[in-house]
Amino acid sequence: MSLKQNTLKGLSLPELSSLFLEMGEPRYRARQVFNWMYNHRVTDFSEMQNTPKSFREKMKEQYGLLALSLDKKIESIDGATVKFLFRTNQDHVIESVIIPESDRVTLCVSTQVGCPLDCKFCATGLMGYKANLTAGEIFDQYLLGGREYPKPITNIVYMGMGEPLLNYEATVKSLSIFSEELTKEVSLRKITVSTSGIPAKIYELADTGLRVKLAFSLHSCYEEIRSRIMPINKKYPLAKNLEAVTYFLEQTGGRVTFEYVMLSGINDRREDEEALVALCRKIPAKINIIPFNSLAHINPTGIAAELKPSSPERIATFAGKLRKAGITVMVRNTKGQDIAAACGQLAVTQI
């Protein structure tokens, strides 16, 4: 599918209003087009039946309605988890994943091409950073992925390739599109933004009024260990991030989810259990325990090559200790590992 360089995808309702007023169109035209693009998710102007034919033809000559094209769809052995490879106008390739679980179908979207953070347990960080995605490119992962999956997407997590808060403007713009009354399929309360910790942007996100959920990539309660496996911690220490997370919760209510990849001998010790319990007594939180998934498909070096997963027995004991302390704990079931689509495995190696 060829993409036009000029696309309406990613424009907000106020931006569409300004555009159409400049073109001499009535203001209500913006609501019509917005509804078709983001609610009905059409990909051709000819489908916008409540707009004049002359308008549809004029728009088709000047603009496109897609920001991405689908290059490849890869299904796991069980046929449930699906990975998508999408191509942008700039010929970058990104990955998204749909993961079903009980009555939920979760789409994991990317916000960057690669990632600059270099987290040692994450394939995306090890592939480096190439570009930020636009709001339209973020949204079209939902549009195109949803078209290819047999069940409706119920939840969206900004946990794919990239750090959402380092592409703050596009991330917030895409969230604002989902927040509009005209975009009805997925509400903000079903959307989670994950971050490795950019304190200033956590504060800003809290002040937007967008009531999304926040997932914070914790992975250790100790500054030294966190800096070893997450170099960003040297610039933005955990203590500063926890202050920002606390502010976010004060502004939005609810609980934060602390993401915790279990690494043998690094963050699965008894003192790590105790530190987590102490932290959750200060900050209302759920713990999302994630088994470490292999990075062999990208041939890691250095610390990344030395990491080993905690045993299932150790994970069970660790989770049990936290639950005994009254903490809500979820142990994520690894899905999609056979297609390098499990948590931490997204990295474009070839296409």
Give a structural overview.
With 351 residues, this protein is of the alpha/beta class. It has 2 domains: 13-62, Orthogonal Bundle (DNA polymerase, domain 1); 68-339, TIM Barrel (Alpha-Beta Barrel), CATH 3.20.20.70. It contains 13 helices and 12 strands. It has helices at 13-22, 28-39, 53-62, 123-126, 135-148, 168-179, 199-207, 223-229, 232-235, 238-252, 270-282, 303-306, 312-324, and strands spanning 68-75, 82-88, 93-101, 104-108, 112-114, 129-132, 155-158, 191-195, 213-217, 256-262, 285-291, 328-331. The strands form 2 sheets. The protein has a 10-stranded mixed beta sheet. It has a two-stranded antiparallel ribbon with strand order 5-6. Helix 11 (270-282) links the parallel strand 10 and strand 11. The longest helix is centred in the last third of the chain and has 15 residues, at 238-252. It is elongated, with a radius of gyration of 21 Å. Mean pLDDT is 91; it is low at 338-342.
Task: Please give the share of residues in helix.
Answer: 25-40%
CATH architecture of the largest domain: Alpha-Beta Barrel
Largest beta-sheet details: 10 strands, mixed
What's the level 1 CATH class of the largest domain?
A: Alpha Beta
Number of domains: 2
Uncertain runs are: 338-342
Question: Would you tell me the structural class of the helices and strands?
Answer: alpha/beta
Order of helices and strands: HHHEEEEEHEHEHEHEHHHEHEHHE
Counted beta strands: 12
Oligomer: single chain
Radius of gyration: 21 Å
Strand content: 15-25%
Average pLDDT figure: 91
Envelope shape:
elongated
